[in-house]
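tool=predict chain=A
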Amino acid sequence: MTERPGLWITLEGGDGSGKTTQAQLLEAWLGETGRTVVRTREPGGSEVGQLIRDIVLHHRGDIAPRAEALLYAADRAHHVATVVMPALERGEVVLQDRYLDSSVAYQGAGRVLDADEVRALSLWAAEGALPDLTVLLDLDPAAARLRLDAADKPFDRLEAEKLDFHVRVRDAFRKLADAEPERFLVLDAAASVEDISAAIRSRVADLI
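tool=predict ok
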């Protein structure tokens, strides 16, 4: 990919790790600094992506693991081309909930597909694009399930998976962070909301 003037930040972690809360806080802080922020997500960050999101997260019944991985990749290809890259080229900050690391963790480890193949598929779909910073909110899956239960909302297809699935996902995220320490900021999601937010702001301040 060519050099881009904007800043691309992704948030990763298991379900219930607090990504939405931290994205809201970071968006507000970036706005106070005068930055234009594009808040988005995968899947579902575009009109086409929302249709795919409804399939992969809310379809009643099974989806073959490889088909699921391909659906996420299709969403990613369209999202990066039509939302992420145009915003970065305008010099804006893209703040994104989930990216290809989620595919490697959820479809690779969770669905027990080949993680390298899933990553290669995503990189092909996104023309090799990687974020400037990936914040990983690391949380024990049992603690995450308690948070989800307390939220008292219906679980989507991935949230409803058994504990061992989410343990594999967490382990995969941690391995990804270990492999790319220059891109990842790993934070304990059991810490206070304020402490996590301060740590994220400190890292982002170095980038802007």
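Strands lie at 7-13, 37-41, 93-97, 133-138, 184-188. The longest helix spans residues 65-89.
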